[in-house]
Design a protein that fits this description.
Number of strands: 9
Distance between the termini: 25 Å
Largest sheet: 5 strands, parallel
Order of helices and strands: EEEHEEHEHHHEHEE
Helix content: 25-40%
Strand content: 15-25%
Radius of gyration: 16 Å
Shape: globular
Number of helices: 6
Length: 197
């Protein structure tokens, strides 16, 4: 469970309070520059809060505890332009990183999660520069799922309504993840919304 209690992020304009429980999707909606990415960074412990507190499963996220909580969170960044040639290269690099952190994640785990999220394994052969960016983000979500955790944060996955992304986010929630997604409009099906001004 992720909770923001009267949180003001440095440079933010409004205090934020919300709870996202396992199985729920929270959409953080706001125009460019409204603070969506700062909120993501606060969740991941990379952005200190000026007031209030952020907790995961009741424990405060601080500079000292953030590395521990990041191991339990999956993160899909706003920018998915990677310097690797194939989508499979990205997946392999993420698997290596997870192994170095002591997590058991295999290519088969990722393939199983991709199938559950509606992505064919043949997509791994795609060139990253020409790959469908929505599907690439869903693959990154599959890697997060294969690594395990309970909190998924997806930063600006779509610019307009996309059934594939909505279905993938819902599947992650149904698997028991607490899902936080940022967006500029109401594009994905969600259980809760927070609007930034």
């Amino acid at each position: 469970m992720l909770e923001f209690k009267n949180v003001v992020i440095s440079g933010g304009r409004q205090p934020l309070s919300f709870v996202v429980r396992p199985g729920e999707i929270l959409a953080v909606i706001g125009a460019g520059g409204s603070g969506k990415t700062m909120l993501v960074n606060a969740v991941l412990g990379r952005q200190p809060v000026s007031k209030g507190y952020v907790t995961i499963d009741g424990e405060p996220v601080t500079a000292g505890s953030a590395p521990y909580f990041r191991k339990m969170a999956g993160y899909v960044p706003q920018n998915v332009d990677f310097p690797l040639k194939k989508v499979s290269d990205i997946v392999n690099a993420m698997i290596e990183i997870s192994e170095s952190r002591g997590k058991a994640c295999t290519r088969k785990n990722v393939a199983d999660e991709m199938a559950a999220l509606g992505v064919d394994e043949f997509f791994l052969d795609s060139d990253t520069s020409a790959a469908d960016k929505v599907l690439l983000r869903v693959v990154l979500m599959a890697v997060c799922a294969a690594m395990g955790g309970r909190l998924l944060v997806v930063d600006s996955p779509v610019d307009e309504a996309d059934d594939r992304m909505s279905a993938a986010l819902r599947t992650m929630a149904l698997k028991g993840w607490a899902v936080v997604v940022t967006e500029r409009g109401d594009y994905v099906g969600c259980d809760k919304k927070v609007e930034l001004y």
